[in-house]
Every structure is written in structure tokens, then in C-alpha cells.
Amino acid sequence: MILQRRMTDNQFKTHLIVGVILTVTLKLILYSVASLTIPDYLPWGYLSRILLWIWMFLLWLYVRYMEKQPFLCLKEKKHTVFFYLLSAVILTAVILGLNLFPEIFTRMKMPLADMHIQAEMMAYQHERPFLLILTAITAGIVEELIFRGYMLPRLDTLLNNQWAAIIIVSVLYAALYYTYGTWLNILIPFLGSIVFGFFYLKYRSLTVVVLARICALLILGAIRF
């Protein structure tokens, strides 16, 4: 089906579980070590993007030599150009809507939560277009390949339950945003991940998901100040 079982069921499940654990812990370890030596945001901004690519590379090594499976085990479906364009626009609009929702209340002086950390980060990137573009492309490619492309189909196979897999991936994905400091900074990625996860399993187009994520991040970075 999705994954070829070239080992016993127990080995198969063990490798999948370890891979899911590595997906989360590798990033935490890399960032924790690097943050001890890079105090300023600008060099950290670039270094953190490099660490994301290293994170994906290490995970790829695990898949290659331990799982011995394709990194992206769902075969990409081909769609019409109209489908790609319409889907990318809709998904981008959904992510923008989720991220701009708190801004509506903030501008009405009805803040739902303190979003100053994210606002400061976006303002910093707004003033540095190259860092903004690098951030959008890196997050769009690396995070979507790892969470949607790698983790989601494996959990779907392991649990044999699409929605359970989507929710677990969304919880793990949102948990990585806890450092932003508010419940909204966790809820918004969680909801966005559910939308992306459902779309990917239904239409099997990681291309659309990646493009939508990149576009949304570029737009958010361009309009926030």
C-alpha cells in the first residue's frame, strides 16, 4: 500500500515510531545546542534556517539506512494547472485568514493574547527581505516535507486512521511553536496543519501544500510591520 514492509511487523512499527520521535527531537536538540552560542537574532535567523535543512537531511539518512523506504511514500498525483492554481490560492487564503484573525481584534483594541514576540519577529524580517524569502522557502519546503510528506503517511499507516494521524501530526507540529509564548501561536499552526494534512491525504499533492505555505509566509512578512 503506502509503505513496503521489508521486515517483520514489529520491526516495521518500531522504525516508524522511532522516525516520528526523531522528527521532533532532532530539531529540539539542534536548536537547543545552537541557541547557546548564537545570542543575536540576525545570525541566529540565518543559522536556524540552515539547521532546518540539516534536520531534514538527518531524517533522510535515517529513512535511507534504517527504514529503507522512500522519504515521501505517497506518490504525487498529477492534476490540472487550474487545480494547482485554485488549490494554492485557497490554502494560502486559509493560512492568511488564520494568522490575521488575531490582528483584527488587536486593531480593535480587543487583544485575544499577547502576540508581541511573533510581531517583533515578522517586523524584523519585513526589514530584511532576503531573510524573509529564505525563511519562507525553508519553512515551506522543510517543514511540509517532514510533517506532511514524511510523518503523516507513516502515522496513517501505523494507526490505520486518517484523522488520528492528522491530529497527532498537528499537535506535534504546533508544539514546536510553544516558544512564541501564547496559546494562539500554538492554535493557529494546529488548525493550519489540520487543513494541510487533510488536503494532502485527499489530493496527494505536496506541491500545492508547499507553494501555499511559502506564499502565505511571504505575504505575512510583507504586510506586517
Q: Concise description?
A:
The protein has one domain (9-223). The protein is built from eight helices and no strands. It has helices at residues 9-35, 41-67, 81-107, 116-126, 129-159, 162-175, 184-203, 206-223.
Can you give a write-up of this model?
- This protein is mostly helical and 225 residues long.
- Helices cover 78% and strands 0% of the residues.
- Helix 3 runs parallel beside helix 8.
- The protein has one domain (9-223).
Structural class: mainly alpha
Count of domain modules? 1
Count the E strands: 0
Distance between the termini: 47 Å
Output the number of helix runs.
8
Radius of gyration over C-alpha positions, nearest whole angstrom:
18 Å
> What is the 3D form?
globular
Residues in helices, as a percent range: over 70%
Arithmetic mean pLDDT? 82
Instruction: Kindly estimate the percentage of residues that lie in beta strands according to DSSP.
Output: under 5%
Largest sheet: none
Give a topology summary.
Elements: H1 9-35, H2 41-67, H3 81-107, H4 116-126, H5 129-159, H6 162-175, H7 184-203, H8 206-223
Helix pairs in contact: 1-2, 1-5, 2-5, 3-7, 3-8, 4-8, 5-6, 5-7, 5-8, 6-7
Short key terms for the protein model shown above:
225 residues; mainly alpha; globular
